[in-house]
Write a structure and sequence with these properties.
Structural class: mainly alpha
Largest sheet: none
Number of helices: 3
Distance between the termini: 47 Å
């Protein structure tokens, strides 16, 4: 390959075409976005499962206990809200 000179701009164009270009500076790639999506979805599902277990425990065992029953319902509500927020698109 010949070195680019003012006499031969086609060689310079070939060199520029060979350089891969990315998106805007600092923009994450698609594979990076997918990699970050996996723990986010797993965390959301874990929170929703925790909330469901606390709701089940409240209805079967702790509905008659004043403080603990209230805390189980609050845990269900908080876990559901955070889990759904994590599943919402950014």
């Amino acid at each position: 390959m010949r070195a680019p000179t003012q006499d031969n701009p086609a060689v310079a164009d070939e060199l520029l075409d060979a350089v891969p270009t990315a998106g805007p500076a600092g923009a994450p790639s698609r594979s990076h976005n997918r990699l970050l999506l996996v723990p986010r979805v797993l965390g959301a599902l874990a929170l929703l499962a925790t909330g469901a277990v606390h709701l089940q425990q409240f209805t079967r065992f702790y509905s008659q206990v004043a403080t603990i029953g209230t805390l189980f319902i609050l845990n269900f509500a908080g876990a559901t809200a955070i889990g759904l927020a994590l599943l919402a698109p950014v």
